[in-house]
Amino acid sequence: MRRAEAVAGGGPVRAPRTGRPTLEEVAERAGVSRATVSRVVNGQTTVAEDLRRAVEAAAAELGYVPHAAARSLVTHRTDSVALILPESPNRVFSDDQFFPSVIRGVAAELDAAGKLLVLLTTGSAEARSRAERYAVGGHVDGVMFASLHDADLLPELMLRRGVPVVCNGLPHLAAPCIDVDHIGGVKAAVEFLLAKGRRRIATVAGPQDMVAGRERLDGYRQALAAADRRAIVAVGDFTAESGHAAMRQLLADEPDLDAVFVASDLMAHGALQALREAGRSVPGDVSVIGFDDIALATYCDPPLTTVRQPIAEIGRSMARTMLRLLEGREVEPLTILPTELVVRTSA
Amino acid sequence: MRRAEAVAGGGPVRAPRTGRPTLEEVAERAGVSRATVSRVVNGQTTVAEDLRRAVEAAAAELGYVPHAAARSLVTHRTDSVALILPESPNRVFSDDQFFPSVIRGVAAELDAAGKLLVLLTTGSAEARSRAERYAVGGHVDGVMFASLHDADLLPELMLRRGVPVVCNGLPHLAAPCIDVDHIGGVKAAVEFLLAKGRRRIATVAGPQDMVAGRERLDGYRQALAAADRRAIVAVGDFTAESGHAAMRQLLADEPDLDAVFVASDLMAHGALQALREAGRSVPGDVSVIGFDDIALATYCDPPLTTVRQPIAEIGRSMARTMLRLLEGREVEPLTILPTELVVRTSA
DNA sequence: CTGTTAGCGCGTTCAG
DNA sequence: CTGAACGCGCTAACAG
């Protein structure tokens, strides 16, 4: 990996055509020192106009692009941040639109700030340790976590290593968090069902190792308790299949239920199918309300009444918080985004 | 940015607690040289067992993680590769499952190889030049392009800069390409419609600045020409809205059409809606066939007959090709994956 | 098998 | 305002 030696025979010693031009080569071509080129490239204003132009010309002709590694070795910055998606790639990029929407929000905000987004999925133990090494190894300036599980130690680990962290889905951490008002949204949904005269209201809850799963169940319980009604609960894992299975379970346990709040739209889609198979009409026999308001909700048959959470805004907000963190500015320790009931046909 | 100076007063000079341990600190703690630590960290077998253990212990205690920039500055490797998605983040992470599925395939394969995936969207000119600087700047070892547009100069640019490239959607490049058999799949679809006795078969074509758009239209034309029938064409851009508009156009131009091949499932979904609004039954009055076989196809009403392309396999194949390229091995210049007609209800 | 040495390409003092 | 010199943390020759 060493540069070519001078050619034997005493001809003029020319630097070999290396793959990429370096600062030094630009400097030589422009007839200035490396330091001056560096200043120009980094937009310092303390360079004489003619030199600056010479440097810019030389850089353009050579197609100079600073070497990322060399630069970040000395600056300790990379101008890129990671978004960690604590699921397998299969899950992240499935038909659940949650992660894609978060990504979209993050990407938009980072793009505007000229930062780069690195996506990491940590669905396996191996992937998790790779992500750790990646972040701690200084590949990125900070790390954002989407939809964390309770048991995930990665955020704390990174914090301890001095990596700036922003998260979603675990509010009690020593890092700024972005989340939505799960409980308020679910209460509105259940109250809507009660106001419609529904009396036996069940729920398909989400996974209980996640805040989103627990709080949506809490909201349901609180609303029912306030109306002095009994809770009827089945638990799924946010997938359509689990929603289908949970709905069957509910129908078996409680055949006379007349409404169900399902903790995600994807599960609601599965639940609708189970109701159809059981010969129940929606919303005639059973009212159904979902949670998320992803595109699928409008495709459902009938179109799904659901609690909208601003998913892309979670991403945007995380990104903005991270950018502020990287600038050393103050940030809100906890940001709660609003949810709202979107009434369609299923309830 | 300089290390703390020795403390005045002559006490023992201790290295200040820097943010992250370096090779040197591990070496000192283990009582060996930096080189030996480097060897152990990089898994070389030429280190005596006792030293290796001492190094491993020291590294573990200090929580040593190699500094990415320093390493890749000398190795010229980063162990990560980029996947470029030549659309805006909004488009990439929309309800079109194409990109997510490609990502999934790429991620799976790269994961298995211990490489990291960096996702870049190049929907704007600015994003494009940022991606260029990123790749040329040596952040990644190679670049993969998904679903290229004809006019995209980025691949050639990167090639010229010596960056390894693999692409999808532009087969005539000086880089290995992965694509699917568009024409064969579409021919099968149209022939299926003809065999069913359909006589006035229209098409909603995709964007004509992409191979996928052009070849699917070609396949349609070839199959109709072989049957001595007239082509009836409207053009969309692969979105549901454009499919809806194109279908309305077709119905206005050719009210007695009895079948339509739509060049993407998302457009087909829009087309179905337009047909419904126009009071045409599917498949009674009009047969509809889509292209892709994403999850949406099964949600359609009626479930969509469609040409399946192995989207995730495109991603896997791109990743495998890239890995081989990075190892300096031979690769196929062109890989064509098969398509197949999946018959459901809409035709 | 191990340690010593020389850069990788760049930003950044510090003199001039 | 400019250039010379140093070091970021690491790998890879080269000696021993």
UniProtKB/TrEMBL annotation, chains A, B:
<dbReference type="Pfam" id="PF00356">
    <property type="entry name" value="LacI"/>
</dbReference>
<keyword id="KW-0805">Transcription regulation</keyword>
<dbReference type="GO" id="GO:0003700">
    <property type="term" value="F:DNA-binding transcription factor activity"/>
</dbReference>
<dbReference type="InterPro" id="IPR028082">
    <property type="entry name" value="Peripla_BP_I"/>
</dbReference>
<keyword id="KW-0804">Transcription</keyword>
<dbReference type="GO" id="GO:0000976">
    <property type="term" value="F:transcription cis-regulatory region binding"/>
</dbReference>
<feature type="domain" description="HTH cro/C1-type">
    <location>
        <begin position="22"/>
        <end position="45"/>
    </location>
</feature>
<dbReference type="InterPro" id="IPR010982">
    <property type="entry name" value="Lambda_DNA-bd_dom_sf"/>
</dbReference>
<dbReference type="InterPro" id="IPR001387">
    <property type="entry name" value="Cro/C1-type_HTH"/>
</dbReference>
<keyword id="KW-0238">DNA-binding</keyword>
<feature type="domain" description="HTH lacI-type">
    <location>
        <begin position="21"/>
        <end position="75"/>
    </location>
</feature>
<dbReference type="Pfam" id="PF13377">
    <property type="entry name" value="Peripla_BP_3"/>
</dbReference>
<dbReference type="InterPro" id="IPR046335">
    <property type="entry name" value="LacI/GalR-like_sensor"/>
</dbReference>
<protein>
    <submittedName>
        <fullName>DNA-binding LacI/PurR family transcriptional regulator</fullName>
    </submittedName>
</protein>
<dbReference type="InterPro" id="IPR000843">
    <property type="entry name" value="HTH_LacI"/>
</dbReference>
